[in-house]
Amino acid sequence: MITSLENFLLKKSRLFVSANMAVHEVLRLHITSERFIVEPRGGDTTELLIIDRVTQEITLQGNQGQIPASAITKSIYGILGIIRLVAGAYLIVITKREKVGEVKGHTIWRVADTEIHSYKRTTTHLTEQQNSLNKTYLSLVENMLRTEFFYFSPTYDISHSLQRLHNTSPEFQSLALHERADQRFVWNGHVLRELTQQPELSRYCLPVILGFIEVSSCQINGKSFDYTLISRRCIYRAGTRFNVRGVDSEGQVANFVETEQIVQYNGHCCSFVQTRGSIPLFWSQRADLKRIPNPVLIKANHLSGFQKHFDNQIYNYGYQVIVNLVNQKGYEKELETMYGQTVSSAKNANIRYEAFDFHKECKNMRFDRLSLLLDRLEGDIKRFGYFHQNRDGFVVSQQCGVFRTNCMDCLDRTNVVQGLIGREVLKDQLTRLGVLEAGQNIEDQKQFDTVFRNVWADNADVISKQYAGTGALKTDFTRTGKRTALGGLMDGWNSLVRYIRNNFQDGIRQDAIDLFLGNHVVEETEGLTSRSPLAVQRDWKYYAIPVILMIASAMLIITILLPDEQTSEQLMYIFFWGAAAIISLATLFWFGTVFVDQPRLLNDKIKIE
Q: Please, which residues have CB within 8 angstroms of residue 281's CB and are 6 or more apart in sequence?
C-alpha cells in the first residue's frame, strides 16, 4: 500500500518530470539568408536552435551575437516539422494558436495558423517541369495545414487517455514529450523526424494531434466542474471517405478515432473511452459518380486482418464490445453478414458482437427506439466502469473494456450511439462525485444538457468534416434529442455536398494526407531522372464524353426553345438530341471512375495488399 507521504512524493516527482519533458512554449523565429534561428522566450535558457539553410545542419548554440539586426523576426508557438519536396526542405511553424481550455492544470491549444519557409531562397535550380511539380506538392502541404482542429500542449501529453497516463512507469514519465506520445495519434511524427533524431532537440519537438477537443466549464446544483471531450484521429490507414475503407494487412482500420470523456471536479478526475473504426474486413467502396457506390468485399483472409486488429485493440483497451450499426439488408448486408461470421470464427472470449440495424429500428424518425440498444448494452456499461482518480491521486476505479462502434462511414449513426453511451456513463460519474443527487437525470439539468448535446454534436461535425468533407448527419437529434424536419433538410444538403467533395475533391485531400504523413516521400530528382506519380495521363473519355454531353444538352434546350414551322422535324431533333444527351450521360456514369478525382500518390489497393 502506498502511504500518504509516498503518494505526495510521487505526485511531486510527476510534476517535476512534467516540467522536464515540456516543450518550449513561446519562441521567436529569426530568418536570415543563410539560417533559420529559433529563440526560446521566457525561462532561463540562452540557447538557440540554428538551422543552416545551405548545409541543412541543425544545432544548438549559445546566444552570443548570433542574431543579426537584419534578420526578419516573428513570434511562433512551435515547430510543426520539416518536409522535403522537389525544391528541397521546408520549415513549418505554428504562427497562431487559440486556447481550448485546461486539463489537469495544463493548457490545451488549437493550431490557428501556420507558415511554410523554404530552405532555398529561389527555385532557379529547378526545371520548368520540376517547378510545376514542386508547386503542386506545396499546395498539397498547404491543403493539409488548412485542415482544422490540430491540437497541442507544450506541457501535457494529450495523445494518451488519463488511464494510460496513470498506468505508466517513472521511466516513461521522464521521456521527452514526443517520445512518450502515443504514435498512433501524432500527426506530425513524419515531419518532426529530422528534429527527433537528435535527442538534445527534444524541447523543440512538439507533437500535434488531429481530432476534436472541447473543454466546458459547467455547473449543476451549484457545483462547478469541467466537462471535456477529446477525440484523437489515428494516423494509420488515414484518408478520406471512399478512398480508404476497411482493414489493411497490419490490422489498421480506416477512420479509427479514440474518444475520451473527462470530468474534473474538486480535484477528482473521471475518464471514459470509446472507439470507432471501419469494419475490420478487406473491402473497398471506390467513388464512381453514383450517390452511394457499392461496397466490394475483397478476396482475402478476412480472419487474419480481423484478428490483428482486435489483438491490438484488446492490448490497448481490454474487452471489446462491437456495436455494429449497419443495415442488415440492401447493399450493406454482405458486410454485416461477413462481419458476424468472422467474429464467430475468431472465437475470441474478449469480444462480444452486438448487431443493431439502426435505420430499420429508427425508421420514420423513431430515434426513441435507440433505448432498445442501450438496454442490451446496459450490463457492459456497468461492467466496464470508468477511470476515476480522487483528489489525493489514488485510483478508485479503472475502465476494463470499450465499446467499438461502427456503421459504414463510422460517422453519423456512430456519433448518435456514442453520445448516448457517453450520457449513461456521465450520469454515473456525476452521481458518484456528488454533483448529481440521487434520482436526478442529466436531461433535467437544462443548461448542462444543452452543453452536453452541443459538445457531442460539434465533435460529430468535426470528425465528419475530416473524413467525409461535411458536417455529420443526424446532429439535430444529438443537439435537441429528437429528429426534426429541418434536420432532415440539412442532412439532404450535407449529403449533396458530400457527393460533390467525395467525387471531385477527395483525391487531392487523400494525396495531402499521404504526403504529410510520409506515406509518399518526394525525391528531389522527381521530374528530372524519375517519373512523378503526379504526372497522370487522363483517358480520352475524360475529355470527350463531357463535351458530347454538354453539346447534346445545349442543342436539346435550343431545339425546345426555338419553334420550328415543321413540328415533325422539330420533334425529330428533340428526340435525336435528347437521346444523345441521355446516352452520353449514361456513358459518363458507366465509366464513372474515369471522372472521379482519384488519389495520385497512393491508392487503396496498395494499402490493402
A: 246, 247, 297, 302, 305, 306, 335, 338, 339, 342
C-alpha cell at 206: 512538439
Mean pLDDT for the stretch of residues 77-106: 97
Ramachandran angles phi, psi of 2, nearest 5°: -85, 125
pLDDT tens column, 190-242:
999 999 999 999 999 999 999 999 999 999 999 999 999 999 999 999 999 99
pLDDT of residue 474: 83
Q: How far is it, in rounded angstroms, from Cα 20 to Cα 177?
A: 9
Residues 6+ apart with CB under 8 A from 520: 511, 514, 533, 601, 602
Q: 373 near 417, Cβ under 8 Å?
A: yes
356 in helix, strand or coil? coil
| CB-CB contact of 570 with 564 (8 Å) | yes
Cell numbers for 361: 429500428
Q: What is the mean pLDDT of residues 275-280?
A: 98
Tell me, yes or no, if the pTM score tops 0.85.
Answer: yes
327 and 357 in contact (C-beta within 8 Å)? Answer: yes
Distance CA 410, CA 278 (A): 6
Q: What is the pLDDT of residues 447-484, one digit of tens each?
A: 999 999 999 999 999 999 999 998 888 888 888 877 78
| Rounded-to-integer distance, Cα 59 and Cα 23, Å | 17
Average pLDDT on 17-38 reads 85
> Rounded to the nearest 5°, which phi and psi values hold at 294?
-75, 130
Q: How far is 279 from 192, CA to CA, in rounded Å?
A: 31
Select from 1, 215, 265, 220 the least CA-distant residue to 110. Answer: 215
